[in-house]
Write a structure and sequence with these properties.
RibonucZ/Hydroxyglut_hydro; RNAse Z; about 25% helix; seven-stranded mixed sheet; binds zinc ion; alpha/beta
């Protein structure tokens, strides 16, 4: 079986986080080390979505812009950056970066977004913004990729293939097909657990899990593994990717992954190791 690369993820709480999603050429957050790690792949990124202004999520942006402008590659490719509306820190940082790179070879589009906004993507997909609960006073958002698909209208679901073909020949496809929205991926960003209503029916959940041990958590601004387990009693994604893990748990990653796989047999789990680049 050929494995198709979807994600390249680097994430270590407090140090760096970035998620590259290849099918739609998207980048979620831009922590330090990204340009050196991705190399020429940085030119393939078309849209960058920033969850919030904490430095472990944005420190790589200056280098990312500079490298795209100067390294060997498609330096003329446009880049769009989306960030949470009203995030003054990100605005100041973007202005600084623009000042330091006065002569950009590519077009840079910068746009603030908020809860409920929808950004069109290629391949019949779009991206929906939802607000998250992280640090007080910090604007933070999560992202959901949605695909428009078609299925048989309920009234035709008991018809045979032959009957359906005849109806299509006579009245066209739209007579039997309806459009619906399929949630493909939900990405939490730094946050307390995302509401099951938002995640429900999402194929893949990419959720932060800073704390493997609940007792280590002092403030309520990140998610613990116990909370993830609780969340998974309400929803059942096909695949769960946990990231933003604290490096104090380096030795517990394999054990935690094994336990999750045993407890939730229908779900495929990946825990992004704080010291490694995960290719999924
Ligand atoms: Zn963080
Ligand atoms: Zn944060």
């Amino acid at each position: 079986m050929v494995n198709i690369l979807e994600f390249i993820i680097r994430s270590k709480a407090l140090y760096t986080t970035w998620i590259y999603y290849k099918p739609n050429r998207l980048l979620f957050d831009v922590g330090e080390g990204i340009s050196a790690a991705l190399g020429n792949k940085i030119y393939s990124i078309e849209k960058l979505f920033i969850t919030h202004s904490h430095v472990d999520h944005i420190a790589g942006l200056w280098g990312f812009i500079n490298t795209r402008n100067n390294a060997m590659g498609s330096r003329e490719k446009d880049l769009e950056i989306y960030y949470p509306k009203g995030s003054k820190n990100i605005e100041d940082y973007l202005n600084f970066i623009k000042k330091m790179n006065k002569y950009l070879r590519f077009k840079l589009y910068i746009k603030e977004v908020e809860h409920g906004d929808i950004i069109p993507l290629k391949n019949n997909r779009c991206l929906k913004i939802f607000k998250t609960r992280h640090t007080p006073g910090e604007k933070s958002i999560g992202f959901q990729i949605i695909e428009k698909r078609k299925r048989l209208k309920p009234e035709y679901r008991n018809f045979s293939g032959k009957e359906i073909k005849e109806i299509i020949l006579e009245n066209g496809k739209d007579e039997v097909l309806e459009e619906y929205e399929k949630k493909i991926i939900t990405i939490s960003g730094d946050s307390l657990p995302i509401s099951p209503d938002i995640i429900e029916d999402s194929d893949t959940l990419v959720h932060e899990c800073t704390f493997i041990k609940e007792s280590d958590r002092k403030l309520r601004n990140h998610t613990s593994l116990d909370e993830i387990k609780k969340l998974l009693t309400y929803i059942s994604p096909k695949r769960v990717i946990l990231y933003h893990i604290s490096s104090r748990y380096n030795r517990l990653i394999n054990k935690a992954e094994k336990e999750l796989t045993e407890s939730f047999k229908n779900i495929e789990f990946h825990i992004v190791h704080p010291e490694e680049i995960s290719i999924i």
